[in-house]
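Sharing a chain and its predicted structure for anyone who wants a worked example. Both blocks are below, sequence first, tokens second.
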Amino acid sequence: MNPATSVTAAGSAEPPEKTHLRLGFVALSDAAPLVAAKLLEFGHAHGLTLELCRQPSWAAVRDKLLSGDLDAAHTLYGLVYGVQLGLGSPRTDMAVLMVLNRNGQAITLSNRLADALAKQASSGGTLRDALATLGRKPVFAHTFPTGTHAMWLYYWLAAQGVDPLRDVDSVAIPPPQMVAALAEDRLDGLCVGEPWNTMAEAHGVGKTIAYTSEVWPEHPEKVLACRRDFVDAHPRTARALVQTLLEACRWLDGAGHRDEIARWLARPDYIGIDETLIAPRLGDQADPANPRRLPMRFFDDGAVNYPHPFEGAWFLTQFERWGIIDARNDYEAIAARINQTQLYREAAARVNVAVPGEEVTRALIDGEMWGSGSPSDAYARRFAIRR
């Protein structure tokens, strides 16, 4: 299925050190770059054969990366940083090779809580008021303790005046199990990637009420990651893998390709649900009827994929904010070691992908600014709601 119109440079004069790669992923729409790379055989031009290995949870992805059973994986940005610091696993030097996507996650509430929120909002009430109608401590789910969904959920709750550590109970549930937990009335809300929010609505067990692109517009989400010793031992392989995935991300921006990838993701080996549950929130255009939801982005002329160290450092500030780690003054240095910016630049040049500028600043939902020039020292202590 390798398209004849592939626009890649052939790669380095020397072949990759390792040619058969096992790549992990979890059943989510934003695994699309890996699936496209596999089915369209983008790796062949760079001397690679890809084997995709679906994992049941993010903990399984982490464990198999650490054991060497997986060479690299589609994984949560924050998970990589947690492993680097030894949070919940042996401390291991890690590498973020590239960003795979931006946006595309959401917060869904149980019907009862969503209805209570709508009623409260109509009379000037707040999320706190809606939560009080439950008569007990609410239970919210994310997908991994140091993962992106935990950080988006905590940030969103805090922006509504709800303390995620004191006012609610949080549990980690693998993405494919989220809808069942909501249907069984074990959850009042969740933060997860697609298509599981869409499925919750389709099954009538929940309502999406917020999008993570409201928390941080164009936020980084999944990354291509591996152990640092893999990069050190196989630098040409790592570069070839980035080239391969950049081509897949570029293909995903092509006309009609989001519908095509939705059909492929629906296959049993990937997500294994009806494509009509995948396609609606996989489009590449903003929805005029729902401007709060920014489209999932995979490429955008290369603007999506550069692994900005400042974006990684943000997760460290949030780990500190929520008491997962003690305050440190080396977040920028940690991010600079993990995020393989030079390797990325070399790979991008070989497949004619532009590298965006380093000077970037983002405004978050609460008005806080974070960017490439933001000092991380004491940043976590700026927030009124924190550990």
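Comments welcome. The chain has a mean pLDDT of 96.
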